[in-house]
């Protein structure tokens, strides 16, 4: 009997003398672990007579409860102490000057997209989106580019393997933002006025082409829309974007399968100190593709082309950024070089507003 008392006391001391969390855990294992002393003691109960078992079992279990209680109490003390030291040492002095944090910049592509959203919002356009992994129907067929159409070859498409087809549709990385026209017309009642900025992909790479680049699509569907609306919209947009009143447009007949008639738009530039500057008409640069939405496209979206007409346009966001902010190599846009970003990037607080000048 006194045996149990002696062992109990000794084990209790072992726990009480633990100086920190690690020592306490070792003590707990030595006492209560699978091969612990108290555990061993409990195992001896099995070989005792019933009377002896009741008496000794009670005593051993009292020690067990007491020791567990002490372990818990010690734990709380150590935890509190740890917290106190952390509170004391990890104090932050809010009155100290802020350390020099590395400063990021807004990428010109993001900045230009914000500028465009601001300009078009003012004309009543909402922003629409579509998936970058697109199916063949939205990217081509619904846009009046059937399978055998030569325009498919023009797009240098990245196709997904056949076994990734969805609903029998071959999947592609979208080659333009025009499928968002289809997604909008099939999900929304006209009148429609949207722009759709986003990433597009073509297998092409040199100083002015990267396999991924950015486009912005515009779409207007309403009653009685004609080419004059398109011209006014593009002129208003380009003047606001380049922040010059002397922006001159030249509309050239062109061909896109999804617009009829199709119009390519050039903007005039002047040469100042050997550099091309937008404005005037010394030379011409192509900036966007556009046209009246083809009847077949409107019909493919379930609308009656005798009731609804509209125009669409598409242009490269990266190219617009280069023309306005003077970069000459498109590849650098996507190198993530911090020096380039420091030079061409924008301050996060420079949110473009029409009143403040979109490129301020
Ligand atoms: N999707 C065309 C392209 O990528 C641009 C375009 C959009 C032309 C809308 C006309 C109308 O080249």
Briefly, what is this?
This protein is an alpha+beta fold and 360 residues long.
Task: Describe this protein with a few key phrases.
360 residues; alpha+beta; BirA Bifunctional Protein, domain 2; 2 domains; 8-stranded mixed sheet; two-stranded antiparallel sheet; 12 helices; 10 strands; elongated; binds phenylalanine
Overview of the structural elements:
With 360 residues, the chain is of the alpha+beta class. Helices cover 40% and strands 21% of the residues. The strands form two sheets. Strands 1, 4, 5, 6, 7, 8, 9 and 10 form an eight-stranded mixed beta sheet that branches. Strand 6 (249-256) and strand 7 form a beta hairpin. Phenylalanine is lined by residues 176, 178, 217, 256, 259, 289-291, 312-314.
* Annotation, overall tally of beta strands: 10
Instruction: Please count the helical segments.
Output: 12
> What is the helix/strand order?
HHHHHEEHHEHEEHEEEEHEHH
**How many domain units?**
2
Named CATH topology of the largest domain? BirA Bifunctional Protein, domain 2
CATH class of the largest domain: Alpha Beta
CATH homologous superfamily classification of the largest domain: Bira Bifunctional Protein, Domain 2
Kindly report the average pLDDT value. Answer: 92
- Describe the main β-sheet briefly: 8 strands, mixed
Tell me the CATH architecture of the largest domain: 2-Layer Sandwich
Mind telling me the C-alpha Rg? 37 Å
* Straight-line N-to-C gap: 90 Å
Hetero ligands: phenylalanine
What is the overall shape?
elongated
Structural class: alpha+beta
Strand content: 15-25%
């Amino acid at each position: 009997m006194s045996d149990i008392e002696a062992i109990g006391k000794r084990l209790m001391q072992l726990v009480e003398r633990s100086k920190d969390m690690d020592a306490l855990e070792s003590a707990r294992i030595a006492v209560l672990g699978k091969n612990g002393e108290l555990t061993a003691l409990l195992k001896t109960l099995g070989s005792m007579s019933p009377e002896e078992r009741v008496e000794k079992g009670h005593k051993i279990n009292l020690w067990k409860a007491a020791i567990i209680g002490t372990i818990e109490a010690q734990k709380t003390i150590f935890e509190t102490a740890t917290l106190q030291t952390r509170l004391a040492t990890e104090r932050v002095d809010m009155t100290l000057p802020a350390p020099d944090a590395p400063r990021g910049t807004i990428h010109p592509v993001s900045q230009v997209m914000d500028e465009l959203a601001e300009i078009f919002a003012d004309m009543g356009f909402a922003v629409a989106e579509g998936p970058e992994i697109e199916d063949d129907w939205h990217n081509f067929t619904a846009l009046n580019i059937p399978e055998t159409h030569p325009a498919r070859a023009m797009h240098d498409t990245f196709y997904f393997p056949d076994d990734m087809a969805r609903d029998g549709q071959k999947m592609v990385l979208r080659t333009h933002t025009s499928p968002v026209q289809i997604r909008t017309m099939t999900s929304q009642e006209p009148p429609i006025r949207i722009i759709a900025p986003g990433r597009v992909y073509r297998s092409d790479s040199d100083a002015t082409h990267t396999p991924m680049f950015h486009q912005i699509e515009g779409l207007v569907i309403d009653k009685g829309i004609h080419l004059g609306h398109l011209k006014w919209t593009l002129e208003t947009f380009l003047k606001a974007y380049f922040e010059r009143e002397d922006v001159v447009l030249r509309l050239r007949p062109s061909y896109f399968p999804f617009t009829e008639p199709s119009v390519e738009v050039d903007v005039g530039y002047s040469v100042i100190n050997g550099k091309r500057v937008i404005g005037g008409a010394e030379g011409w640069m192509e900036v966007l593709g556009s046209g009246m939405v083809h009847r077949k496209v409107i019909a493919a979206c379930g609308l009656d082309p005798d009731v609804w007409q509209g125009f669409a346009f598409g242009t490269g966001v990266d190219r617009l950024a280069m023309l306005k902010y003077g970069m000459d190599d498109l590849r650098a846009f996507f190198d993530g070089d911090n020096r380039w970003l420091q030079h061409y990037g924008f301050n996060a607080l420079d949110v473009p507003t029409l009143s403040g000048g979109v490129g301020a």
